[in-house]
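User: tokens in, sequence out, please.
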């Protein structure tokens, strides 16, 4: 889509506050093959990835728009040979730079170069608490050992570390060990993120959906660990929303706190936005990020609360959770403007619970991510 396709800003419509964060998916290439990968079924090929100059321009546009935090993600961002100049370019426009990585592909020399370029923070994914379980879920033998080595290098340099552990039926019973490992690795923060079934992960619902008993126990484990590890490890917990009463405010509300840029420069309000019908997404840097953020019909489609239908429209929680996740509403009800079916006020909630319980009792084999090479 070209710049001319954007509507001019309506004088009566105030500009939205700037996004706090931008997720830059530098590449979809990845050495791992996690079954819970949330990237789309169809990945962007290497030949279509933006080059260094284009990303540098996007970072400058993001800083001008008011973005403060840049998350460099993928795929595996270390697959980009120009990662160091990209970090330097982002720091040059005062973005806080977080690298989201599996650690596979990191060497001491590379870490030195990234640190010299100004890298602020690293978020390391954790596939399991030992080599057998981690390498099995990542589909990559030797991955766990390399990750532990990467964590030691980070600790030695004092680079702040967050661990991201995707939890599911196969590992939720090892949550205590996951928390203990985070402390041992010197992480300041642990994200305990129950698997979300977007993108490739949707093929693995019956293999990964946690049981209700597991979810309830996990909540208690997190409560106890938060109290015990106060001042040592901060724990963020994203519970299985199928077992909650109300949905999360996905992306903090559509078009309100963040944006995602895919490897070919497509700018999205959320990770899975391309699954929603009727939306067209512009590409940066050809179309400036500021114009996309303020004027793109796709960003305006579910911004605020005007688009809502019953029961959200009159609900007292509508400015707290913004009706939940548009992509989940689409996937489960076929209507992107429907109330997130996680909500107990949704007419689809009963069906969602029944499906989650069916999936949690499933015995399906893992379907490993393909197409990342
Ligand atoms: Fe949130 Fe809508 Fe449910 Fe109210 S009805 S709690 S706004 S999802
Ligand atoms: Fe798209 Fe939640 S993932 S709105």
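Assistant: Sequence out:
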């Amino acid at each position: 889509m070209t710049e001319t396709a954007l509507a001019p800003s309506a004088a009566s419509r105030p500009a939205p506050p700037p996004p706090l964060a931008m997720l830059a998916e530098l590449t979809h290439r990845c050495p791992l093959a996690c079954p819970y990968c949330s990237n789309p079924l169809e990945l962007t090929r290497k030949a279509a990835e933006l080059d260094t100059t284009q990303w540098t321009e996007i970072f400058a546009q993001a800083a001008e728009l008011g973005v403060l935090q840049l998350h460099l993600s993928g795929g595996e961002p270390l697959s980009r040979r120009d990662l160091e100049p990209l970090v330097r370019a982002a720091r040059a426009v005062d973005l806080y730079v977080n690298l989201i990585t599996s650690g596979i592909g990191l060497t001491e020399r590379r870490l030195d170069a990234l640190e010299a370029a100004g890298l602020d923070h690293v978020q390391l994914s954790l596939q399991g608490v030992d080599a057998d379980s981690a390498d099995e879920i990542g589909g990559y033998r030797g991955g766990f050992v390399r990750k532990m080595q990467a964590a030691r290098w980070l600790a030695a340099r004092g680079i702040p570390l967050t661990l991201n552990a995707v939890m599911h039926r196969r590992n939720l019973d090892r949550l205590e060990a996951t928390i203990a490992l985070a402390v041992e690795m010197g992480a300041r923060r642990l994200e305990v993120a129950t698997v979300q079934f977007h993108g490739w992960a949707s093929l693995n619902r019956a293999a990964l959906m946690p049981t209700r008993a597991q979810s309830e126990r996990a909540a208690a484990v997190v409560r106890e660990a938060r109290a015990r590890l106060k001042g040592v490890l901060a724990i963020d917990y994203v519970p299985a929303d199928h077992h909650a009463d109300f949905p999360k405010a996905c992306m903090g509300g559509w078009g309100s706190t963040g944006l995602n840029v895919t490897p070919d420069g497509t700018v999205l309000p959320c990770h899975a936005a391309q699954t929603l019908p009727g939306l067209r997404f512009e590409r940066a840097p050809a179309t400036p990020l500021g114009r996309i953020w303020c004027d793109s019909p796709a960003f305006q489609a579910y911004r605020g609360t005007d688009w809502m239908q019953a029961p959200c429209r009159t609900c007292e929680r509508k400015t707290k959770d913004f009706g939940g996740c548009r992509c989940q509403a689409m996937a489960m009800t076929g209507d992107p403007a429907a109330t997130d079916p996680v909500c107990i006020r949704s007419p689809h909630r009963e069906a969602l619970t029944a499906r989650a319980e069916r999936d949690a009792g499933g015995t399906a084999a893992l379907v490993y991510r393909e197409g990342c090479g």
